[in-house]
Each structure stands twice: as C-alpha cells, then as structure tokens.
Design goal:
The protein is globular, with a radius of gyration of 19 Å. The chain has helices at 2-14, 51-58, 117-126, 139-145, 158-163, 196-202, 208-223, 268-281, 284-304; strands at residues 65-68, 80-84, 93-97, 111-114, 131-134, 151-157, 171-172, 187-192, 232-237, 243-249, 256-262. The chain has 305 residues and is an alpha+beta fold. It has 9 helices and 11 strands. It folds into 2 domains: 2-89 and 182-291, Porphobilinogen deaminase, C-terminal domain (Double Stranded RNA Binding Domain); 93-172, D-Maltodextrin-Binding Protein, domain 2, CATH 3.40.190.
Length: 305
C-alpha cells in the first residue's frame, strides 16, 4: 500500500515535469511479518508507520513523505506540515465475505475479522451475535484469510481494496452505521514547514475540498483525545454545505453517541472541535476511556499468551 501511495504522488509530480526518486524506509509498523502491532498501553497507537519517515524528513534525508492520512497523529512533530492532500478515495469500510452480501446477511455467530477497535464496535452494534476476532497483516494477507480457520468475513477500508485491485466482491458498508476513521481514504504529503521550494512544487496537488473535510475530521479526533485506542468514526458530507458527522462507540458496541455540525471551509478545524465538544458534553470521553482500557487489556493478554 505504501508503495502504491508513493508511486501515485510520483505520477502526479512527474506529470508536472518534476523528477522524483523513491526512497524506501522501514518503520516500526513494518517489522516482522507485516502485521500491525498493538499500540503500547497508554499511547494512541498513531505513529507506528510514520515515525522513522518523519525522522528522515527532519534529518533532510528525504524531501517529502507520502502517508495514508489515517496513520498520521493529529499533531505533527514540530517543523513538519502537510503540504498537500492530493486526492481521496471512497471513505467507506467494506465487507469481504465468503458468501457475498452485507453484515445483515452473515450467519448467526459468524466469525468476522478486523484490526480496528472502531470496526469491532460498529459490527457488534449492528450484530451483537457476531464473534469479532483480531485480524492482522497487510491488506492482501487479511483478504486471503477470509474462508480459512472458520473466518466468515473481514471488514477493511474500501479505499485500500480498490487501490490494490482487491475490491471485487467487497460490499461497501453504510456510513451511518460504519463511520470511517478520520481521514480514511485520503493521502497526505508531509514536508518540512520551512522548505518553501518543495511546498511550492506540491501546492498544485492540494485539493481544497479534501483538505477542508479531513482537517475537520482530524480536529474532532484530537479534541476527543482519541486515536487507535478509541472507537471513533468521522466523515464529512456536502449535501447542503460541508457538514461533519462523528460517532463514538463503546468497545462492545453497546452504546454509541453521534453528533453532526456544519463546517466552515475557511476554518474547518473549528467545526470539528465544536462537534467533538457536543459529544464530550454528552459523555464521549467515558467511551474513549473504555476503549483505552479495552485495548490495554487486549495487549496484556497477547503478551501473556
């Protein structure tokens, strides 16, 4: 996936006459067999796939970095900035299953895999009878596991499936019941904040509509103090002006809080913070705390196993 993303930005730049050299950097999240490691207790889990790349930027070993936006922490390291959000794929999650169909079509007590607490909570909110199991590895690995060892289905980001040519048979899930991770489907090009030459080269790649949406989503996530250890979904729609939708789940899906609010494209982050504060006033921080406790207990169980 990282190679696809980097090559996509290279294509956009070379089309404008810019010469680009790709540099491969191995990150903490890439270690081992490609499985996404569990975040250490007490951390958000963000940065597993970005720290070494951001270090290379700050040390001037590279001039720009291409990320899947949802892997980036809400607050960037000092001295770095997002120069461009060049495009955004479909934001929805999708179900990959043995039989086809959506979540409602799964057999009772079916085993469904996911690497995301947010997806786990949404699955259990929709179908409390399901058995949700931890599914790790890169996208092709997770897709190949469906149908093996009793695994009936898996939930993944539709954007990743499409970018890797694996979306055939995948069923998109409704945004209201399965809100995506903030920034899902978007690419982010990160650079040094003072590198004006590179910033200028990337300026034509930035899509203002994408920037407005993802900045609102990420601001809400930051205000909620969420991350990989919280079951938080967020997405913007533009039916009657830009609006942000945020939903926070309990880890077991037994409770969820939702809020929606307008987003001013001139200051999208302000709209994101307002929606998050509405949720906080109604108890969202307690659900975030439960998510942290759940993830920490899961990590401990894996260490003791």
């Amino acid at each position: 996936m990282a190679r696809w993303q980097a090559n996509r930005v290279r294509e956009l730049l070379t089309a404008r006459g810019v010469s680009v050299e790709l540099i491969t950097i191995h990150t903490s999240g890439d270690e081992g067999s490609g499985a996404r490691p569990a975040p250490p207790p007490g951390t958000t889990g963000k940065g597993l796939f970005t720290k070494e790349i951001e270090d290379a930027l700050l040390e001037r070993r590279i001039d720009l970095a291409v990320h899947s936006l949802k892997d980036l922490s809400a607050e960037l390291p000092p001295g770095l900035t997002i120069a461009a959000y060049p495009e955004r794929e479909d934001t929805r999650d999708a179900l990959v299953s043995m039989r086809g169909g959506s979540v409602t079509d799964l057999p009772r007590r079916a085993r469904v895999g996911t690497s995301s607490l947010r997806r786990r909570a949404a699955l259990l909110a929709a179908r409390p009878d399901l058995t949700v199991v931890t599914l790790r590895g890169n996208v092709p690995t997770r897709v190949k596991k469906v149908g093996k060892d009793g695994l009936e289905a898996a939930v993944l980001a539709l954007a990743g499936l499409r970018r890797l040519g694996l979306s055939q048979g995948a069923v998109p899930l409704p945004l209201d019941a399965f809100p995506p991770a903030p920034g899902q489907g978007a690419l982010a090009v990160e650079v040094r904040a003072g590198d004006h030459a590179v910033l200028e080269l990337l300026r034509p790649l930035d899509q203002p509509a994408v920037r407005g949406a993802v900045e609102a989503e990420r601001a809400a996530l930051a205000e909620l103090e969420g991350g990989c250890q919280a079951a938080i979904g967020a997405y913007c729609d533009s039916g009657h002006g830009l609006a942000l939708n945020v939903r926070v789940f309990a880890p077991d899906g037994s409770k969820a809080l939702s809020a929606r609010g307008p987003v001013n494209p001139a200051d999208p982050a302000a709209g994101g913070r307002l929606v998050a504060r509405d949720l906080i006033a109604r108890g969202a921080r307690e659900l975030v705390r439960l998510g942290r406790e759940f993830t920490s207990s899961e990590s401990l169980e894996r260490e003791e196993a």
